[in-house]
Amino acid sequence: MATLIYSTIMSLDGYMEDGDGSFDWAAPDDEVHAFINDLERPVGTYLLGRRMYETMAYWETAGALSDQPPVGQDFAALWQAADKVVYSRTLQQVSSARTRIERDFDPAAVRQMVTRAQRDLAVGGPELAAQAFEAGLVDECHVFVVPIVVGGGKRSFPDEVRQSLELLDEHRFDGGVVYLRYRTRT
Ligand SMILES: NC(=O)c1ccc[n+]([C@@H]2O[C@H](COP(=O)([O-])OP(=O)(O)OC[C@H]3O[C@@H](n4cnc5c(N)ncnc54)[C@H](OP(=O)(O)O)[C@@H]3O)[C@@H](O)[C@H]2O)c1
């Protein structure tokens, strides 16, 4: 059966976007980006909140292929090859191929998608991911901790969810980022 993964790049104090709405400090260097690419390779479908989709849609553009270093080009190719489901009540049209809009997050439908999938799924955007956690759908968390404290902003993990985790892997990067891979425990 496929795995549903929540990946996040966050500050040490747990934010994926700071109080000014910026996440420049989370931009991966080439070493981290290459590692992320290898983690994303098995992902066949992205389930994305509308805001995360709007950020990630950059990777659909020609610029993502021509202006980027090799790690960026590799990621753009992975993004473009994957299916995307965008959750939004407002979005009228999508700006990427292999993409459909869902007007609501239906846990039963997502569970069925995971059960039937040949490849892994990733859920992105903390507001959407909170709903996947609440429904007990998240199998793994891939967390990149950036060596910075930002003091506030948008939290990577939902406030109202309690989840036991088992550490499966960890990795330290030269730039000070730490990767933690957890499996959720029931
Ligand atoms: N740290 C990093 O490396 C990093 C990387 C990329 C992006 N980001 C930032 O992270 C933020 C994304 O997180 P977020 O929590 O704000 O947003 P999100 O989860 O990506 O998207 C929230 C939106 O998803 C839609 N949505 C959520 N639940 C829904 C449901 N049940 N049914 C239908 N639609 C639903 C709604 O869209 P509508 O309003 O259209 O209905 C909602 O406004 C963005 O600001 C992004 O720029 C950070």
Question: How would you portray this structure in words?
Answer:
With 186 residues, this protein is α/β, with parallel strands linked by helices. Helix content is 29%, strand content 32%. The protein has 6 helices and 10 strands. An 8-stranded mixed β-sheet has the order 5-4-3-6-1-7-10-9, sandwiched between helices. The protein has a two-stranded antiparallel sheet with strand order 2-8. Strand 9 (164-172) and strand 10 (178-185) form a beta hairpin. The model has no long low-confidence stretch (mean pLDDT 96). The structure holds NADP nicotinamide-adenine-dinucleotide phosphate (NAP). NADP nicotinamide-adenine-dinucleotide phosphate is lined by residues 9, 16-17, 23, 26, 49-52, 55, 87-91, 103-105, 125-128, 131, 154.
| Number of helical segments with 4 or more residues | 6
Reported for the largest beta sheet, the result is:
8 strands, mixed
Ions, cofactors, ligands: which are bound?
A: NADP nicotinamide-adenine-dinucleotide phosphate
Task: Give me the strand/helix succession.
Answer: EEHEHHHEEHEHEEEE
| Overall 3D shape | globular
Give the C-alpha Rg: 16 Å
Please give the share of residues in helix: 25-40%
End-to-end separation in angstroms reads 17 Å
- The low-confidence parts are none
The whole-number mean of residue pLDDT values reads 96
State the strand order across the main sheet: 5-4-3-6-1-7-10-9
Q: State the secondary-structure class.
A: alpha/beta
Short key terms for the protein model shown above:
alpha/beta, eight-stranded mixed β-sheet, two-stranded antiparallel ribbon, binds NADP nicotinamide-adenine-dinucleotide phosphate
